[in-house]
Design brief:
10 helices; mainly alpha; about 80% helix
């Protein structure tokens, strides 16, 4: 470990720094939502471009289809993410209400649950009883402990609106990248598609690298994996468009 890294860790673990960090509100990590929206946006628009090119559509048609899908699918995905996060919040609130009710009806049973939870963590004897007494003397702490420890639920940082907006804007920004070559005049259809292919490939790889920061995966491996997934989706769309042109005469 380098000297600077060690100094930084020592600073982060000073009592006053720890105290300040723990008092701050929980910081929601929006990067997973951004990665989700970015990957889906790039896959969606480049799949449309690939399908249009495979079917022999003009650049104008590909651009119109791409923009339409970009807006519609981006909105749909944002709404879906909003509803999913909202459902999680409602579930947590329901569990919290149940725990309050259980404490009113069977306080000793709930106290025993706290005892066994911390017993499994290695506490015993007088220390265990002091932990149980401390937690159960604060009703809100008691309930939050049960929500986290018994049910394994996250109780902070669930913001449906923030998640939805993050997903939507990431979808739009990254998803628009494969469409840029089709907005440039003077390029032939084949060159526009190849340029879009390069841009999409770069986006997939960069998103995969960014994903490695969230899930602690090897950077290169994560980038290549996302590139392969996006490439497979685009290849499937291209094949579908080409088959539609061949079998049904779809195209220009």
């Amino acid at each position: 470990m380098t000297g600077k890294r060690h100094e930084s860790l020592e600073h982060q673990h000073r009592p006053e720094v720890i105290r300040h960090r723990l008092r701050e509100p929980s910081r929601v990590q929006n990067l997973p939502d951004a990665i989700l929206g970015g990957i889906d946006g790039c896959v969606t628009t480049f799949a449309v471009v690939s399908g249009a090119f495979g079917a022999g559509f003009s650049a104008t048609v590909a651009l119109v289809l791409g923009v339409a899908n970009l807006l519609a699918d981006g909105f749909s995905m944002a709404v879906s993410n909003y509803e999913a996060i909202q459902a999680r919040r409602e579930h947590v609130e329901g569990v919290r209400r149940n725990e309050h009710q259980h404490i009113d009806l069977v306080p000793e049973g709930e106290r025993e649950e706290i005892r066994q939870i911390f017993q499994r963590k290695g506490f015993a004897g007088e220390t265990l009883e002091r932990v149980v007494e401390t937690i159960c003397s604060d009703r809100e702490l008691w309930v939050e402990t049960m929500v986290r420890e018994e049910h394994g639920l996250q109780t902070e940082g669930l913001s449906p609106l923030r998640s939805a907006l993050t997903t939507f804007f990431a979808f739009l920004v990254v998803g628009a990248m494969p469409l840029l070559p089709y907005a440039l005049p003077g390029l032939g259809t084949t060159r526009q598609f190849l340029a879009s292919l390069l841009v999409a490939g770069l986006m997939f790889f960069l998103i995969g690298m960014g994903k490695s920061l969230v899930y602690h995966q090897p950077v290169l491996t994560s980038g290549l994996r996302t590139l392969l997934i996006g490439g497979a989706a685009a290849g499937l769309a291209f094949l579908t468009g080409h088959l539609a042109q061949t079998l049904f005469g779809v195209g220009m």
